[in-house]
Structures
1.
Amino acid sequence: MAVLGIVTAGGMLMAKTQIMKAQDARRKQDLNLIQKALEHYYSDFGRYPEEALVEDCGGSGLDPYLEQIPCDPALKSAYDYVLLASGKAYALYAKLIWTKDPVVTAIGCQNGCGPGNAYNYGVASANMSVSSGAAEEGVQPECGGPGNWFCFSSVCSECCPGSNYRCNGSGTRCILDATCGN
């Protein structure tokens, strides 16, 4: 009976690992699909789209480049898209569940990447690295507190250091924006 219990527990653990790997494969595929759409958008408009279009999980903001914005398969939430204020570079982040995936180390995210180093996988425009820290462009918001600073996604000045700042789409950084304060 004990042997049967051990075999059953081992089988359940292997099944859980395979589910995690499958969800991570989906995350990687989703980011690659979004990346292709972003590059086509850039080719047409000379800049990458605003955060609100890309972080609209399930939305069609990138149509005709991508019919529907994919969502994280387990969390059902948007992937974190960080656009530099110039619109000329971006990084797109996800958190892989199977942390032993060799790609985590290969892209330099074993100690975290992206806003708050909260992610371990990402893709980026050719002129940016997901592990470079460039995704932290902008300044820290003024609402919240240590470990929980925030601003209101895509809103000008609120929780930012002045009227010429706009909160990024993920609510993690205040970025200079010439259209704010006018």
2.
Amino acid sequence: MKRFIASILFFIALLSFAAAPPFIPPGYAANGYGATALTGGTAGCLDAINGATLVDGDKAFVVTTTQMYVYNMDASSATAESSPTVISPDSNAGDKRWELAYIVTNSRGIDEGRYAADAQASDTYVITLSPVPAAYYTGMSIYFEPNTANTGAATLNVNALGAKSIVKNTADALQTGDIEAGQIVGVVYDGANFQMMNPASIFGAAAFTAGDTVYATAASTFAKLAIGAANTKNFVNAAGTAPEWANGIKVGTFSRNTATETGTQAVTGVGFKPSHVIFFAVVGNTPQVSVGVSDGSYSYCIQNVHAEVADAWSYNATYCIFLDEGANIYYQGILTAFGADGFTITWTKTGAKSGTAEIHYIAFR
């Protein structure tokens, strides 16, 4: 507490020497200066102190109604002036520059100097703070109340210091709905843009309803998929770019003349690219029956071989359709490809096979 009181008394003593001959605190080799404004060139301004009297390591304390700035003198800086970060003496500056060490803002300054209402009707938000800030600086935090919701990328111009982009997630442009009318928006200047601390929606999209699904259409760009019809499932679309709702199951039928030689048969009309198919095959009123399944890589089926052995069934792990007419007389099918609207069966005929096969299938997306 004693150190804190001593510091306050020290700052008050410095202020009493604003625009006066330098004050030299006991034990300090450098000079100390006080001022009540940063720039302006008039009495009480930091830049009004004659550079001829300044030496490397001098200190300056500038106290306004809401902030206190602490500066160090760098006699060989030569940096271009950029208030409040760098202040150059108006006279005899040479390479001497006041360089900002830190800023202290009181509670009144936070309440009255960091908030303003916007009066624009577009995404180019404009506010006027009071007291007036001298310049943007890294770490500068501002709160404003927008007059309108944003419809895309947005900017903020504070006291005509220049429009700066408002971004979220470090550097992403705002999307529609990130700012709502009447919302208190908090932003922090990062040296190039205003980073928004509280987007109205992390998705920045139109209003959501119960059951909607959010997905990314690009890096940090979001969209929504409205809830689907009852009992549908969520799938990735055929292009592989977005989700969609669909039934995902197709029951269908096709036929094949088993007298036809070995060859392929394309089955279409499924409505999607299947992932696997179940087959039920029969030839007329004969015991030529098989039940099989395939995922395009593996095929399995069980088949009635009554024509060879009464009431017998057999199993194989090569074909998904097997129609047995007798010893060394049979017709076999294997699923060899999936298409955008169906699948392809490759048939193999053995012996003098005859009859038309009716094949029913259940295709799954």
3.
Amino acid sequence: MEPVLLPPRSPNLNAYCERFVRSIKEEALSQMVLLGEDALSYTIQQYVSHYHAERNHQGRANQLIAPEPGLGNHRGQVRRRDRLGGLLRYYYRDVA
């Protein structure tokens, strides 16, 4: 691997990556005390799952990136899925 040198004062070159890092830091990592690499790895894996399947994105008209099939019905009981001990929550309707 060879590093790619970025020009100085170029903040928009990594805008998507920087936004994801900011989101994971604000929504998960800054609110937890992580004791070890395994805890960090588990937290990142849970956040990425939440980010792709359960979190609305304004850039996509508040749609999910990869919604689970069968969710999003207008009937059925409202359920809540907790991740990271309730730090990340997702509300959905059960399949009727």
